[in-house]
UniProtKB/TrEMBL annotation:
<feature type="transmembrane region" description="Helical">
    <location>
        <begin position="798"/>
        <end position="821"/>
    </location>
</feature>
<feature type="transmembrane region" description="Helical">
    <location>
        <begin position="663"/>
        <end position="687"/>
    </location>
</feature>
<dbReference type="GO" id="GO:0055085">
    <property type="term" value="P:transmembrane transport"/>
</dbReference>
<feature type="transmembrane region" description="Helical">
    <location>
        <begin position="409"/>
        <end position="427"/>
    </location>
</feature>
<feature type="region of interest" description="Disordered">
    <location>
        <begin position="60"/>
        <end position="96"/>
    </location>
</feature>
<feature type="transmembrane region" description="Helical">
    <location>
        <begin position="737"/>
        <end position="758"/>
    </location>
</feature>
<feature type="transmembrane region" description="Helical">
    <location>
        <begin position="317"/>
        <end position="334"/>
    </location>
</feature>
<dbReference type="Pfam" id="PF03600">
    <property type="entry name" value="CitMHS"/>
</dbReference>
<keyword id="KW-0813">Transport</keyword>
<dbReference type="InterPro" id="IPR051475">
    <property type="entry name" value="Diverse_Ion_Transporter"/>
</dbReference>
<keyword id="KW-1133">Transmembrane helix</keyword>
<feature type="transmembrane region" description="Helical">
    <location>
        <begin position="608"/>
        <end position="628"/>
    </location>
</feature>
<feature type="transmembrane region" description="Helical">
    <location>
        <begin position="634"/>
        <end position="651"/>
    </location>
</feature>
<feature type="transmembrane region" description="Helical">
    <location>
        <begin position="495"/>
        <end position="514"/>
    </location>
</feature>
<dbReference type="InterPro" id="IPR004680">
    <property type="entry name" value="Cit_transptr-like_dom"/>
</dbReference>
<feature type="domain" description="Citrate transporter-like">
    <location>
        <begin position="329"/>
        <end position="761"/>
    </location>
</feature>
<keyword id="KW-0812">Transmembrane</keyword>
Amino acid sequence: MAELLQRIRGLGKKKDRNLNTSVYSVVSCSDLTPGSVEIWVDLPDEIKYDPLLAPFKQRYEQQHGKPDPIDEPNEGDKTIFDKRHDVEPKKEDVEPLKDATTRLMEPMLANDSDTKLKSAKRKRLDQALRTLKLTALVACWVLLTVSLLLNMERTATVLHTAIQGGEVKEYELPPSEDRVKVLVTLTGPFAQAASNESDNILQLWLHREVVDDQLAEFKQNSTKWKIRLQPEDLLDFSPSSTDSKMLILQDNSPILNNSKNRRNLTETEDLIQEEITRWNQIGINGTRITLCMSTSSVSTVPLTVSYQLNPIDPEDGIIYATILLITLYTLIIFEVVNRTIAALLSSSLAVAVLALAGERPTLSELVSWLDVETLLLLFSMMLLVAILAETGLFDYLAVLAFEVTGGRTWPLINVLCFFTAIFSTFLDNVTTVLLMTPVTIRLCEVTQLNPVPVLMSMVIFSNVGGAATPVGDPPNVIIATHPSIVKANINFTTFTMHMGVGILIVGVQTYFQLRYMFRDINKLRHSVPRDILELRQEIAVWRRAAASLSSYSRDEDIVRRALEKKVEKLNVALNRREAGGGASRTDPMFCSTLAQMKQKYRIRDKPLLVKSAICVSFVIIVFFLHAIPELQRLSLGWTALLGALLLLLLAERDDLEPILARVEWSTLLFFAALFVLMEALSKLGLISWIGSMTETLILQVGQESRLAVAIMLILWVSGIASAFVDNIPLSTMMVRVTAALADPAGLGLPLAPLAWALSFGACLGGNGTLIGASANVVCAGVAEQHGYRFTFVQFLKIGFPVMIGNLIVASLYLLFCHCFLQLH
């Protein structure tokens, strides 16, 4: 690649033939006067012998013959700097010179000493910071190790029972005189949130009473948890669903807070104090706490109950989760450690926090937190791309795109972003990025572009395009397959038609915003290309030559106008190359570069290319069939694995080490750590808190404004949150909030607008930060393997403003469609 770049830079040194055409139209025969020819003779050689001024040279040769070769300067022409080397300096002349030199060098030596001192201080500061960093990281490791050594793995108690109508079933829990918190998880024949076909209710609550003759009347109940059941005829053999809730018994004194006991006691301070003393004597063994269950159904209701005593307090959990999230972003933003190590450290600290809170997960539970489907898809597609790269296909496609676009910058970027967005609508955007990133990097290398901003633009369009269909982005898969969404008749066609129009508008806004952000074409380059620098230098030389001629005499004016016309032609060429980074198809330099690229970057292994095409075609066809609900038999991960396995068989490779070495293991490990961290944040209550706060804010506005407020809140909350937390668990939680808002028993808002708002927010919010979407992380990993690393801050500067623009356009689109036109 370096050799190719050198050849391209070498081609930039050649004169552009277009700049030297039509020379006789610049200088006419009437302009070739003896005076103008004499002025031409006095011009610098690099200008005098330019093809544009060839008529002057020809006229001079006709009159005086060929000009003499340039002679070396004679003795009289030597300057004082040349002559002083011919004379031996005298000693008395040298000594004062040395003294003067010493006086002049003293400040420089002092400055050099200051620089060395500052450098030493800088080294000491760097060493101190390094020591501080290592100390903090080791402290985190010690915290993790101690928390795992001192805390057992949490095991939830699982019970199976059945409740008949009219009875209250009780299960006794360990007694406690303090505040009691129990996290209860139920599995049974529960109705969906949006269903109102049944009036059968299941109720659960905590009950505490005093086992004492004098305080026997004291009873305390928690708030009742009510769950709607399936209709009577569906209770048997119905599909089960799972739900959980935390039940709380306050720790206030029963003597001072129970109205019945107050009526039985004498209202004197002494008697109250006596009863409190009696309560303390009874203590923990004198109380009985039970988990009570009842149902209004006349049939027997089977249940599976699991409970956990004293789980993490939601308020404390939110604080811990926020600290963990800030820790992750601090490590990544300031590049304290590698991105993958930062994710591993943050997820390990999350496990340590859970262990210290008494909720240490088991190893099998930790493994269940991994999204194996996503990891399998990534691994399989990485294998396919690694083998496909050996055929030379990506190099060939880069040359083809270079030829089609004429090597111009923005046409190249337009083609890349357009095809990326189109592919992402029907393929998973992670797959699209894995296929497009190698082509983009190669194309940027041959056109002397910086791949980092081009890759960021490409992955942004991947996230935008993936939001258009139910299969383009994982959040859309979660939303489209939710039972409430399916029951509302939001199918593949309905989803695509409504989201497609909005995404088309968002795509236009994204394109123009990126064009504005990269309006300076030099931001898309590593530095100013050599051919542009040479053009600028040549323009400066010709301008100086033209400025040295006055317009007082006709002869000088003739030559000056000829030079100015040359400057104009050079400026045209400079503007064309600065604006587009390329040249016309007839430009000799472009044709020569293209010919060399075609010669060097060809298909290297055609049989392997045919085999790879068969396997990739199989994967893509099955991916497209996955868009049809009736044909969703194979998941995306299984499809990619089958394609990779087939290609490994057809490739007949005995040694897999070179192929496995190209797999982005650090990216896969980063995703695994991120999945664990996000599930831990969910256990700590952060994600559910976001959903509950959204629902609370919607309930505080009037009925006539609730739809507009709900659309805006769901869109912006999911969008901003998706930029900083993984959008998969966020979408899983927010789709439940959306279904609850559409429940006729609650607010009864239309479901479709809320679903579109969630889809726009969860998908477009991924453009905000580097770890906001899976495609961003994959693209960064592939780019880093090719030697191009872009940081969190680099992506934030481009992606976050684009995300804000996307959400604004989506807001206007949704409000216009559902609040003004009421298309729902």
